[in-house]
Specification:
By secondary structure, the chain is mainly α. The chain has one domain. The chain is 79% helix and 0% strand. The longest helix is centred in the C-terminal third of the chain and has 27 residues, at 185-211.
Length: 218
């Protein structure tokens, strides 16, 4: 890829970081509702734009779609929690499809064990925290996404770690429904775990695809 072409795409990531970090640090009390919703969705929406524009390949567009569902979920959650969760679930299913296509050929026993533990543990813990079956159903997709990312052949300490951070963020949301309802911890950690998890996932997938030569045509 020409240096100029890469530079043309870096602003998407820079703008995403501006939106994502500023949303976490800002005091939202004086921000009008619609502007705050757009602000919240902007960080991951710009990751989707980065992935889509970065390279014209199906897998790059798949991770862009995952990010787009995430951005949609971010915004819709502010209006309707159930519809927002559905958007995220659709993103998890798309991500699982991508990761399964790129599954690791020979994962170690410990890697397999963590994948199985994530698949089973995330929905069980989610139900324990929230006491709600719909939450556990959603978390089955969340756990499947994180497990599939961990067992994929994408960089484990970028894509796999990012997926685990996403799962941890959602578990804190569910904990806020119950045992951590009065704790400031979820408020402090939910957004950075989620946003930087998505950032690691998106850039990790794109970086791996580039390293494998999928973008030689550029």
């Amino acid at each position: 890829m020409a240096a100029g072409a890469l530079a043309d795409r870096r602003p998407w990531l820079a703008l995403s970081l501006v939106f994502g970090i500023s949303y976490w640090l800002a005091d939202h009390s004086h921000v009008p509702g619609l502007y705050e919703i757009a602000w919240k969705g902007g960080g991951v929406a710009l990751l989707a734009a980065y992935a889509w524009s970065h390279h014209p390949t199906k897998d790059a567009h798949r991770i862009a779609l995952v990010m787009a569902f995430g951005a949609l979920g971010d915004m819709v959650l502010e209006i309707n929690f159930t519809l927002g969760a559905i958007a995220f679930l659709l993103g998890h299913l798309e991500a699982i499809s991508l990761y399964v296509r790129h599954r690791r050929a020979t994962p170690s026993p410990s890697q397999k064990a963590l994948g199985v533990a994530t698949l089973i543990g995330v929905p069980l813990i989610s139900f324990e925290l929230s006491g709600q079956f719909p939450v556990a159903f959603y978390a089955l997709g969340l756990g499947g996404m994180a497990a599939a990312a961990w067992l994929s052949d994408f960089p484990r300490y970028r894509v796999g770690l990012g997926a685990m951070m996403f799962a941890a963020s959602d578990l804190l949301i569910f904990a806020r429904m119950g045992p951590l309802a009065q704790s400031p911890l979820p408020h402090l950690l939910i957004w950075p775990l989620y946003y930087f998890g998505q950032l690691l996932i998106c850039t990790g997938v794109i970086g791996a695809l580039k390293a494998r030569g999928e973008f030689r045509a550029e």
